[in-house]
C-alpha cells in the first residue's frame, strides 16, 4: 500500500525539478570571458517560443568549460534556467567552415603557400591579447592614417574590395560597420574608430574608396577606408589572418573582422560572416566597457527586443 505513495512523491519531486530547471539549445557570439569567476557573456540568438536575441552573462560549472573560448567565438551551448539562476553548459566553438568559393579557394591557396608553392609574407598572424604593431596606410581623403594616432581608443577593423560582387561578403562586412557607425554615433571618434582595409590596392585608390564610402554615409573622420602599396596591404592583412588571391579580375578571399582594445591589443578576431550586426555591436560594446573595468549588458538593445 505504500508503493503508490512513494511513486506519487517521486512524481511530485520530478515535477518540481522540471519547474525549477529548463534547458534550451542555444547559439551566440562570445563577447566576454572571465575564467577565474567562471563567467561568460554571450550575445545569444533568439530561441523561438522562449526569448528574443539578447546579451546574457552566464555562469559555467567549471572554469575548464571556458578553455579555448575567446571573445568573437561563435558557440553552441545549452542554456539552463533554474529557479534562482541560469548558466551555460556544453559550450562548443562553432568553427567557420565555408563551402562558398571565395573563402574555400583562399584557404586552399594559403595551404599551398605554406607548402612553399606560393610566395608569402613572413609576417605572422596575431593571437588574441597580442599587441598590434603600428602600421600606416592612406584613407579615402588621401591622408596618412596610423594605428598610433588612435591610441586609447577602441578600433574595429575589417577587409573588403570595392568590386566584390557577392552580397554576403564585402557588402555585408561594410554594412556591419554601417550599423556600428549608427549604433555608436555618440562615441565615434571619441571612443571608437572604424578601419576598413582594401586588399585590392591597385584598383582601390583613395578616390575609388571615397565613392564607395559614400554608399555607407561613412564619416571620413571616424570611419577610414584604407589603401596602400601591395606590400603594405599584404603585411596588414596577414597580421589579422586575412588571405586573398586575384582570380580573373576578382579576388578569392577569406573573411575577418577584428577588434583592438584601447591598449592596442587584439581583443577579438572573428572569421567568417556567420554573425549579425547586433552581435558585432555587442562585442564592441563589451570592449568599450572594459575600459571601466566591467561589462555592461546593452540595455538599449534589450529594450529593442
- Helical segment count: 7
| Percentage beta strand | 25-35%
Helix content: 25-40%
**Which value, in Å, is the CA radius of gyration?**
22 Å
Class from helix and strand fractions? alpha+beta
Topology:
Blueprint: H1 3-20, E1 22-34, E2 39-44, E3 54-60, E4 74-81, E5 86-93, H2 101-114, E6 136-138, E7 144-146, E8 154-160, H3 170-183, E9 192-198, H4 206-215, E10 223-226, H5 230-239, E11 244-247, E12 250-253, E13 256-260, E14 266-271, H6 277-290, H7 299-304
Parallel strand pairs: 3-5, 8-9, 9-10
Antiparallel strand pairs: 1-2, 1-4, 2-3, 4-5, 6-7, 8-13, 11-12, 13-14
Textual characterization of the structure:
The protein has 305 residues and is of the alpha+beta class. It has two domains: 3-93, Copper binding periplasmic protein CusF (OB fold (Dihydrolipoamide Acetyltransferase, E2P)); 101-273, Glutaredoxin (3-Layer(aba) Sandwich), CATH 3.40.30. The protein is 28% helix and 28% strand. The chain is built from seven helices and 14 strands. Strands 1-2-3-5-4 form a five-stranded mixed barrel. The chain has a five-stranded mixed beta sheet with strand order 10-9-8-13-14. Strand 8 (154-160), helix 3 and strand 9 form a beta-alpha-beta unit. Helix 3 crosses helix 6. The termini are far apart. The relative contact order is 0.16. The model is unreliable at 1-18, 112-119 and 294-305 (pLDDT under 50).
TL;DR of this structure?
By secondary structure, the chain is α+β, with helices and mostly antiparallel strands. It has helices at 3-20, 101-114, 170-183, 206-215, 230-239, 277-290, 299-304, and strands spanning 22-34, 39-44, 54-60, 74-81, 86-93, 136-138, 144-146, 154-160, 192-198, 223-226, 244-247, 250-253, 256-260, 266-271.
Amino acid at each position: 500500500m505504500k508503493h503508490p505513495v512513494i511513486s506519487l512523491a517521486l512524481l511530485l519531486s520530478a515535477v518540481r525539478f522540471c519547474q525549477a530547471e529548463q534547458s534550451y539549445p542555444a547559439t551566440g557570439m562570445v563577447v566576454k570571458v572571465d575564467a577565474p569567476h567562471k563567467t561568460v557573456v554571450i550575445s545569444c540568438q533568439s530561441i523561438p517560443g522562449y526569448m528574443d536575441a539578447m546579451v546574457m552573462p552566464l555562469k559555467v560549472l567549471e572554469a575548464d568549460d571556458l578553455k579555448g573560448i575567446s571573445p568573437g567565438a561563435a558557440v553552441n551551448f545549452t542554456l539552463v534556467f533554474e529557479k534562482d539562476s541560469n548558466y551555460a553548459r556544453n559550450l562548443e566553438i562553432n568553427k567557420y567552415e565555408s563551402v562558398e568559393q571565395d573563402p574555400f579557394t583562399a584557404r586552399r591557396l594559403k595551404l599551398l603557400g605554406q607548402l612553399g608553392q606560393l610566395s608569402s609574407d613572413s609576417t605572422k598572424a596575431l593571437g588574441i591579447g597580442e599587441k598590434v604593431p603600428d602600421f600606416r596606410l592612406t584613407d579615402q581623403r588621401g591622408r596618412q592614417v596610423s594605428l598610433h594616432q588612435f591610441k586609447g581608443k577602441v578600433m574595429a577593423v575589417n577587409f573588403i574590395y570595392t568590386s566584390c560582387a557577392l552580397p554576403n561578403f564585402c557588402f555585408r562586412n561594410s554594412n556591419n560597420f554601417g550599423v556600428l557607425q549608427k549604433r555608436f554615433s555618440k562615441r565615434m571618434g571619441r571612443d571608437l574608430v572604424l578601419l576598413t582595409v582594401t586588399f585590392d590596392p591597385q584598383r582601390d585608390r583613395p578616390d575609388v574608396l571615397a565613392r564607395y564610402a559614400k554608399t555607407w554615409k561613412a564619416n571620413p573622420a571616424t570611419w577610414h577606408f584604407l589603401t596602400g602599396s601591395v606590400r603594405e596591404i599584404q603585411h596588414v592583412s596577414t597580421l589579422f589572418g586575412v588571405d586573398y588571391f586575384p582570380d580573373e579580375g576578382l579576388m578569392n578571399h577569406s573573411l575577418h573582422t577584428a577588434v583592438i582594445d584601447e591598449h592596442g591589443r587584439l581583443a577579438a578576431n572573428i572569421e567568417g560572416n556567420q554573425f549579425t550586426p547586433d552581435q558585432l555591436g555587442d562585442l564592441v560594446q563589451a570592449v568599450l566597457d572594459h575600459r571601466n573595468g566591467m561589462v555592461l549588458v546593452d540595455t538599449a538593445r534589450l529594450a529593442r527586443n
